[in-house]
Amino acid sequence: MQEVYDFLKKCETYYLATVESDQPRVRPFGTVDIFEDKLYIQTGKLKDVSKQIKTNPKIEICAFDGSAWIRIQARAVEDSRREAKEHMLNAYPMLKDRYAADDDNTQVLYLKDAVATISSFSGKPKVIKF
User: Fold this and answer.
1) Does pTM top 0.85 for this prediction?
2) Is 87 strand, coil or helix?
3) Which listed site, 59, 76, 109, 128, has its alpha carbon 20 to 30 Å from 42?
């Protein structure tokens, strides 16, 4: 899992895919955190992405670092604990002007049953399950 975290941090931006009815939805994200041995992402509950994940928690993430790419399939599970939200916001202090650990909007989700595949044009894909 650490390798997946490091890859996403290196990329800075990754793309998160959800489903809305029968339509795929993809948008850029930038938050990733490790808390209590789980990989977390963050969003706002007022956003469509949050509503899509609530309806169907299966997500995919994709990122490219210039020479290799990662694809992650997972189930996003909300963690409503203040400690998890606070940990994420401390990792991304620039979010504190829009989010707070005690507001009704901040949402952190950890990836469950995740399968990450790191690929490049020059080598075999590496699969990481966590």
Assistant:
1) yes
2) helix
3) 128
